[in-house]
Write a structure and sequence with these properties.
Shape: globular
Structural class: alpha+beta
Low-confidence stretches: 1-11, 20-28
Largest sheet: 4 strands, mixed
Number of helices: 17
Length: 492
C-alpha cells in the first residue's frame, strides 16, 4: 500500500534505495572492480555527470582514473572502458565475455529481449546469424542493392532541385531517402517522401531517439520504480513503439497471406519461411515477437545512423567550403557526369577521407550501445562480475588525440598520408567492434559514399544568408546536428 502522506512516501523511498544500495554494495565488494570517482549515497555519481551529454563527463573522467574505471549510477555500478586499446581488448580479445546486454529499464520495456540489438544469449545469436545471411541474400554489398541506392539518389536529387536554391530543412527528406533502402530489403517497396505512413514512422523513430537520449531517460533507468511516478517518458516511448509495431504486424500478416516459399521477396518472407520450418519445441526463435522487433531494429538502425551521418556531412560541407570544393573537384575528375558507383571509391582518396572524417567528427553513437559481461571475467587486473553493465565509450576512441592529432577539429587529413593517399586508421570504429558490431556496416558504407558523392556532384551546399552554422550535437540517443536549413545550389 502506498503511503498517502508525501513526506512519508519520500522517506520510504529513500530507505528502500539505501537498502538496495547496501545490498548491491555488499554483493559486488566480493569482486575487484576498477577504481572511479567516489559515489554519494543513493545518487552515486549522478551529481558529476553532464545529464544531457554524459559521454563528455565519462571521457573526462578517464583522464583521471585511466582507461577502465567504475562509475555508479544511483545504486548500479557501471564499468566504463575508454581508448582504442582498452575497448579493442574488451570487444575483440574478450569478445564472448563482453557480448551481453545489460538490464536497462527503458530498453527492457521497449525490446523485451527480442530482435537483434538488445537480444541476448542464443536468441541474439540466431537472430544475428539470420540477419547477416538474409541481408547478403538480398544484396548487401552486391550490385543489386547498389542499383537500388543509385535509383534512390535520383529521387533525392530531384527533391533537392525542387527547392530551386531556396533554404529548406533536409531532416525528413534525408531520413525518407535512406529509409527506402532498408525498406526495400524488409518489405520490397519504396515510399514517396510525402507518404503519410512513412512520415509517421519517421516521426515515431525521431521522437523515441530524442526521448531515450534525454536526461529524464537517464533518471528513469537509474530509478525506474520511483521515476515511473514522476515522468511520462516511459509511456511516451511505449506508445510510439506500439504504433510502430502495429504497422509491422499488419505488414507481415499481409505477407504471410501471400507467401510463396519458392519466391522469397524480402527479409519478412525469409523469416516467415524459417518460421514454418522451425520444429515445435519449448524454445522457439522465429516467433512473431522476434520478427516484429527485428524489423523495427533494422528499420531504425538502417535509417537513423546513415541519414544522421549524411546530415552531418552536408552541414560540414557548408561550414568548410574549401573542403567541399576539393571533393567536387575529385568527383568531376573521376566520375564526371556519370552516376557514382562504389567502385569509384578506390580512385577517390580525398572524398573517402572526408566521409571517414564526417563519421569520426559526427560521433553519432558516442557512448555506444551498452554491453554486459556474460560471465565473471578477469580484465586488465580486475575481476568483473557476470551481468555488470559495460560502456565501451566510442567518443574516447574517435576523439583520441593519440590516433587523431586534431581530434577536436574537422580534419580529413587524419585519413591521408603526405602523398594524398587514403590511410586506414585502426582506431576508426564508428560501427563498434567485436561480436556486437553493426550488422549493416557494409550497407551503410555503400549508402554514405553513393548519397554523398551524388549530392555533391549535383549541388553546392551553402548556408542561408545570415545563418550561423552550429556544430554542437543535439541531445538524442543518435546524436545528430542541431536543426539547420540548407541551400542546394545546382551545379549541372
Amino acid at each position: 500500500m502506498i503511503p498517502s502522506d508525501p513526506i512519508t512516501l519520500v522517506l520510504s523511498l529513500i530507505l528502500c534505495l539505501v537498502f538496495v544500495l547496501f545490498f548491491f554494495g555488499c554483493k559486488k565488494n566480493a569482486y575487484n572492480l576498477p577504481p572511479g570517482p567516489r559515489p554519494l549515497p543513493v545518487i552515486g555519481n549522478l551529481h558529476i555527470l553532464d545529464m544531457k551529454r554524459p559521454h563528455t563527463t565519462m571521457h573526462q573522467l578517464s583522464k583521471k582514473y585511466g582507461p577502465v574505471y567504475t562509475l555508479q549510477l544511483g545504486v548500479e555500478k557501471v564499468v566504463v572502458i575508454c581508448g582504442y586499446e582498452a575497448v579493442k581488448d574488451a570487444l575483440v580479445n574478450h569478445a564472448d565475455e563482453f557480448s551481453g546486454r545489460p538490464k536497462v529499464a527503458l530498453l527492457d520495456e521497449m525490446f523485451k529481449g527480442h530482435g537483434i540489438i538488445f537480444a541476448s544469449n542464443d536468441n541474439w545469436k540466431v537472430m544475428r546469424r539470420f540477419t547477416l545471411s538474409t541481408l547478403r541474400d538480398f544484396g548487401m554489398g552486391k550490385e543489386t542493392i547498389e542499383n537500388k541506392i543509385s535509383e534512390e539518389t535520383d529521387y533525392l536529387v530531384q527533391k533537392f532541385r525542387s527547392y530551386k536554391g531556396e533554404p529548406f530543412d533536409n531532416l525528413m527528406t534525408m531520413n525518407a531517402a535512406v529509409s527506402n533502402i532498408i525498406v526495400s530489403i524488409l518489405l520490397s517497396k519504396r515510399f514517396d517522401y510525402e507518404d503519410p505512413t512513412l512520415l509517421k514512422l519517421l516521426k515515431l523513430n525521431k521522437e523515441n531517439s530524442k526521448l531515450c537520449g534525454s536526461p529524464m531517460a537517464l533518471l528513469y533507468n537509474t530509478y525506474p520504480s520511483v521515476m515511473r511516478w514522476f515522468t511520462s517518458v516511459m509511456a511516451k516511448v511505449l506508445r510510439n513503439v506500439d504504433e510502430l509495431y502495429a504497422f509491422i504486424r499488419e505488414t507481415f500478416t499481409n505477407h504471410r497471406e501471400h507467401l510463396d516459399v519458392n519466391d522469397q521477396r524480402n527479409l519478412i518472407d525469409s523469416f516467415l519461411v524459417k518460421q514454418r520450418e522451425e520444429k515445435p519445441n519449448p524454445k522457439l526463435y522465429f516467433t512473431n515477437e522476434n520478427l516484429t522487433r527485428l524489423v523495427a531494429d533494422l528499420f531504425e538502425a538502417g535509417m537513423d545512423t546513415t541519414s544522421t551521418t549524411l546530415r552531418w556531412g552536408l552541414l560540414l560541407m557548408m561550414k568548410y567550403q574549401e573542403i567541399q570544393k576539393k571533393v567536387q573537384s575529385e568527383i568531376d575528375k573521376v566520375i564526371g557526369s556519370n552516376e557514382p558507383q562504389v567502385i569509384h571509391r578506390r580512385e577517390m582518396p580525398y572524398t573517402d577521407a572526408v566521409i571517414h572524417e564526417i563519421q569520426r567528427f559526427g560521433n553519432i553513437v558516442p557512448s555506444s550501445v551498452p554491453h554486459a559481461t556474460t560471465q565473471d571475467v578477469n580484465f586488465r587486473g580486475y575481476l568483473l562480475p557476470k551481468g555488470i553493465q559495460v560502456i565501451p565509450l566510442l567518443t574516447s576512441i574517435l576523439y583520441d588525440k593519440d590516433h587523431f592529432v586534431k581530434a577536436d577539429e574537422f580534419y580529413p587529413e587524419h585519413f591521408l598520408d603526405s602523398s594524398g593517399n587514403f590511410v586506414r586508421k585502426e582506431a576508426f570504429i564508428p560501427f563498434s567492434a567485436g561480436k556486437r558490431s553493426c550488422a549493416g556496416e557494409n550497407l551503410a558504407k555503400m549508402e554514405l559514399f553513393m548519397f554523398f558523392t551524388r549530392l555533391l556532384q549535383n549541388f553546392t551546399f551553402k548556408a542561408p544568408p545570415g545563418a550561423k552554422l552550429d556544430l554542437s550535437p543535439a541531445v538524442a540517443f543518435i546524436t545528430g546536428p542541431m536543426p539547420y536549413e540548407i541551400c542546394a545550389i545546382p551545379r549541372l
